[in-house]
């Protein structure tokens, strides 16, 4: 898809990126303005924070044995998707503003495809987390009995599907041969593709919200039937805490991404009075901020995660010093906790840790 290809009837394969921007009404400056410098500087700062914070989460999950369960592998993969998002946005910062008109069509599709892939990976991860939570909680377990191999097969499938979704416009679902159907926000994307992509993600959000609502109603109902037995009470509290953390992650994701998807949908439907270009930059920044919200949630909700973060940072700052020991695994299954109760692990002098995850 470069300018060396001859145009055919009805197609504009030999035109530059600038041509499509001008035709869609999204004119870009050919020189750097103060606003461009501010956007790029802030954007790059956020990207570096996103990359570092999510590397910290991935490192913590790998380091601490307590996090070696399917739910944490999926949350770690979500952190990997956020990390990929930070890299994608960093790439965008180096190919935005006046740099945009210097891109070839292939480079432009790569730039957009990276963003699409990162969002798709995040959505699929959250959907996998919702299914995993539904399975474990309705079986009254804290952690799924799913094998590590199966979890990694799911993770590979998530990334393959995300990459395919990112490549779809490049493979033909574009407007190079249908100029009137070009998007305003993404001038070489077909409006029909934007409608499909936005509706698919919004539908997935709705399904996940319905799943979590059902889980919360079930847990609340089941907790009323539980006795006051110590192990059952602690199990219930741990399940509630884990659900709260996962729900906060989902809620922040929906809040940060829904405005952008709605604007994309309006653009795809050709809503001219909506002035989508006015809100585009703000909603893009909001979506980008979601990628460093999750590490903050982990730190706020989980003492073990905070302690592991500190250990990793200490190792980075003091490579010559001896490493501190990792946290122990507290719960394997509900049966393990009941066994601990029967063996007298919970005596009157023992105070259980109040971890959130």
Automatic annotation (TrEMBL):
Q: Output the Gene Ontology cellular-component terms.
A: cell surface; endosome; plasma membrane
Q: Which GO terms describe its biological process?
A: angiogenesis; posterior lateral line development
Keywords of the record, alphabetical order, are: Cell membrane, Disulfide bond, Endosome, G-protein coupled receptor, Glycoprotein, Membrane, Receptor, Transducer, Transmembrane, Transmembrane helix
Which SMART domains does the record match to this protein?
7TM_GPCR_Srsx
Q: Which SUPFAM superfamilies match?
A: Family A G protein-coupled receptor-like (SSF81321)
Query: Where is it predominantly found?
Result: membrane
Q: How does it sit in the membrane?
A: Multi-pass membrane protein
Q: Which residues cross the membrane?
A: 37-62, 74-94, 114-131, 151-174, 194-217, 238-262, 282-300
Keyword Disulfide bond included in the entry's annotation: yes
In Gene Ontology terms, what is one molecular function of this protein?
lysophosphatidic acid receptor activity
Q: Which Pfam family name is an example for this entry?
A: 7tm_1
Q: Where in the cell is it found?
A: Cell membrane; Cell surface; Endosome
Nucleus as UniProt keyword = no
Which InterPro entries would you find in this protein's record? GPCR_Rhodpsn (IPR000276), GPCR_Rhodpsn_7TM (IPR017452), LPA_rcpt (IPR004065), LPA_rcpt_EDG2 (IPR002277)
The entry assigns this protein to a family as follows: Belongs to the G-protein coupled receptor 1 family.
- What name does UniProt use for this protein? Lysophosphatidic acid receptor 2b
Organism the protein comes from: Dicentrarchus labrax
């Amino acid at each position: 898809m470069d300018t060396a290809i001859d145009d055919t009837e009805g197609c504009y394969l030999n035109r530059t990126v600038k041509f499509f921007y001008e035709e869609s009404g999204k004119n870009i400056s050919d020189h750097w303005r103060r606003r461009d410098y501010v956007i790029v500087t802030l954007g790059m700062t956020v990207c570096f924070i996103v990359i570092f914070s999510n590397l910290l989460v991935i490192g913590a999950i790998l380091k601490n044995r307590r996090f070696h369960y399917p739910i944490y592998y999926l949350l770690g993969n979500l952190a990997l998707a956020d990390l990929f998002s930070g890299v994608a946005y960093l790439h965008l910062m180096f190919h935005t503003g006046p740099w945009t008109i210097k891109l070839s069509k292939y480079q432009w599709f790569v730039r957009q495809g990276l963003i699409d892939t990162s969002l798709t990976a995040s959505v699929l991860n959250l959907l996998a987390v919702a299914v995993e939570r539904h399975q474990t909680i309705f079986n009254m377990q804290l952690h799924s009995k799913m094998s590590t191999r199966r979890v990694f097969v799911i993770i590979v499938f998530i990334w393959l599907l995300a990459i395919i979704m990112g490549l779809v416009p490049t493979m033909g679902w574009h407007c190079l041969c249908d100029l009137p159907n070009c998007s305003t926000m993404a001038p070489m994307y077909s409006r029909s593709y934007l409608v499909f992509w936005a509706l698919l993600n919004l539908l997935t959000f709705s399904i996940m919200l319905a799943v979590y609502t059902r889980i919360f109603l079930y847990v609340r109902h089941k907790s009323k039937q539980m006795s006051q037995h110590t192990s059952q009470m602690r199990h219930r509290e741990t399940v509630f805490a884990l659900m709260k953390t996962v729900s906060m992650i989902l809620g922040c994701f929906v809040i940060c991404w829904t405005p952008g998807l709605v604007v994309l949908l309006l653009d795809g439907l050709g809503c001219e009075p909506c002035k989508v270009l006015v809100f585009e930059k703000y909603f893009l920044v909001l979506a980008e901020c979601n990628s460093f919200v999750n590490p903050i949630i982990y730190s706020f909700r989980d003492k073990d995660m905070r302690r592991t973060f500190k250990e990793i940072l200490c190792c980075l700052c003091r490579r010559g010093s001896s490493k501190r020991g990792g946290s122990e695994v507290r719960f394997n299954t509900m049966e393990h906790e009941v066994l601990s109760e029967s063996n007298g692990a919970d005596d009157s002098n023992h105070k259980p840790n109040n971890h959130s995850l």
